[in-house]
Design brief:
This protein has 317 residues and is of the alpha/beta class. The chain is built from 13 helices and eight strands.
Length: 317
Amino acid sequence: MAALGWLTPRRRSATARSVLAGEAAAEAARKTSQQFEADTETEAPDTAAARRREADFPVVGDVRAAAFFDLDNTVMQGAAIFHFGRGLYKRKFFQRRELARFAWQQTWFRLAGVEDPEHMQDVRESALSIVKGHRVSELMSIGEEIYDEYMADRIWPGTRALAQAHLDAGQKVWLVTAAPVETATIIARRLGLTGALGTVAESVDGVYTGKLVGEPLHGPAKAEAVRALAAGENLDLARCAAYSDSHNDIPMLSLVGHPYAINPDTKLRKHAREREWRLRDYRTGRKAAKVGIPAAAGVGALAGGTAAAVALHRRRR
C-alpha cells in the first residue's frame, strides 16, 4: 500500500508536529475521560484502605499526582493496533494480503519485544487507509467487540495492579500510546482507568479522512501529550509516575519524578539502571516470581505468545 504523502512533514518541523500531536491527544483524552469518569467502580473502603497502608508509593490523597502508562507490551502483551487489525480483517475491512503484513509485524513485535519504527509506520498507514470513509461511531462500536475478542486476555496482571494502586490512592491514571485514541479510550474504560492519550486521526462530520492530526503519538510526542495534559489538569509532574517498556518513551519517563521501566527492552533497561529507575518484568517465571506474580502465569503468557507468533510465521511461509 503506497505511503501517504501527508505523513511527510513539509511546513512544520518534527518538533512542531510532535507538539500538535501531543496537544490533540491531551484534548481528546480530557474529553473522553469526563464521559466515563462517573462509571468507574471502586473497591470497598476497608479493602482500599488496607492496600494503601501497605505501600509507600503512590502517596494517598495527592491529587496533584497522576500515573501515565504506555500500552503496548507494558499494560498489554503485543501491540493494540495489530489486534485491532485482526478484528477488522475478521469483519472484512481488508484482504488477506494486508492481514499477512499485520501478522508478520505482530510476530516481530512479540518475538523481539521492541518497537520497529518502520514496521509501526507501515501498520499505521495501512490502518488509516482502511478506516478512511468510515464513521468514528462505527469503529468505536467494533472496537468494543475487538477488545473482548483479542485484547482482554492479554493484560499483564502485574501492570494492572500497579495502575490499581494509583487509583486506590485517589490518583488519575492515563494510558499513553501510539494506538488510535478511540482504541486506547476503550481499553482505558474497560480497565477502569481515567482515560487515554492516543494518536488522533482526523475526522470531518464524524467520518475519518485518512489523515492524522500532527503525527503518531510516539517518542517525543508522548512527552508533549503528558506535558499538555498535566498543565490542563494542574498536575505536578515531579510527583507523577510513568511506566513503559520501550526506550522510545525515555522522553516521557524523564518528565516525571517516578519513572518505571516495565518489561524493558535492552536500551531502556540499561538507561534505567544507570539512573536507578525502578524496574518490573512480568515476562518470565523467574522475574515474575521476584516481583510477586505467579510464575506459571508469566511462563504461560510468554510461551503462548511465542507459539502463536511462530505459527503465524510458518503459515505465512
